Amino acid sequence: MKYAKVYFDDVTVGDELPALVKGPIQQIQLTRYAGASGDFNPIHQDDEFARAAGMGGVFAHGMLSMGFVGQAVTDWSGAGTVRKLGVRFAALVRLKDVVTCRGRVIAKSSKDDVNLVELEVWAENQRAEKVVAGRATIALPARD
Amino acid sequence: MPIQINKSLIGKEYPPYAVTVERGKIKEFARALGDANPLYLDDRVGAASEWGDLIAPPTFSVTFRDETADTAAFLRELGTDISRILHGEQEFELFRPLQPGQTYLCRSKVIDIYEKAGRSGPMAFVVRETSIADRTNEIVATMRHITIVRL
What we know:
By secondary structure, chain A is α+β, with helices and mostly antiparallel strands. Helices cover 23% and strands 31% of the residues of chain A.
């Protein structure tokens, strides 16, 4: 097992991933993410612009929260295990919000020596409101 | 009076564009997420791994864009501007991790545009898909991106 951190055999439907807590979100992180991702929409940087756009102020890139969810998965299963990650952005993440990413195993399947684990994944803010909700599929090695 | 979205863009394919993944860009992206996974950051760990080099985090391909294209032009063509758009949904399918030094060819297409009443008023959903192929023309990843336009 070179990269995966967990064996397919040791995963059970209903298992929960360790929670990954990110934040409080600071403007500098949004600026840094803008630079790293190339998404320079001023709505994530310029409070005046965000207010004029009717958004009530700056909010985080959805992709930042999705990246956190991806980390919650790979912290548990290992980098390079993700085959699919899909989310809906359910609510805005604001400055000072704390984002907690969670996941749960909902299915397992094996076909042609490929062992897949399906996860429900989500992130919530400090008021337990879902900000991101979706699914992930990971491929894991089996014990010999 | 809500704005009108240009639905004639459904089915439109954009010219393919090549992206060469830079090692430093993977590290910068992982650090911006606060993800210290050594497979994203440590060249020696990457070299010793089964991939022989660093790999990119699962959402990294969101950084791929056509540097020669005017991104504001897509929004203008759609009939909107950057102050009205929100990210609705995003999906990545990864057949192989993306790696530094590799050049990928990206092809994007508008799959669908539909309107729905949202909590805060009418909205249009613009669904785009991008396929990412390696030098041998094998698809290594796909992205599905739903942009919401507040009408």
